[in-house]
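We store sequence with structure; for instance:
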Amino acid sequence: MGIFGGLFGGSSGGDEKKSSGIPWIPLNSVAQLSDIKEVSSSKPQLIFKHSTSCGISRMVLNMFKSSYGLEDGQMDLYFLDLLANRDVSNAVADEFGVMHQSPQLLIVKNGVVVVHDSHNAISNIKLEQYI
């Protein structure tokens, strides 16, 4: 991959998610949303919506990765590839009542979104507050 691919949304596939140090769970099915809501009563759930073709989304994802510091098991982290799973993204917006944006981060506790933001404002969300 060239320099511009890395900066502006080129995808390196699943290897990137594995090597990021973040225990991403792929969010690729609408059915997973009911599990997210259910489990959120005992553990916070995070959804990161990412557009693999958007340079801003790539930049925000990299900022998120570099500042990530949770211990294993504190929160489930779902990664939603918007281009591959547009139906799931639309269902997230409908299910949780949060207008779609990209990139976007949502934290779900007790079945509801307790915080969400998009673009560079994602870096202002302190995950530790929601444990």
Q: What stands out?
A: Residues 93 and 99 are 5 Å apart (CA to CA). The longest strand covers residues 112-118. Residues 1-19 have pLDDT under 50 and may be disordered.
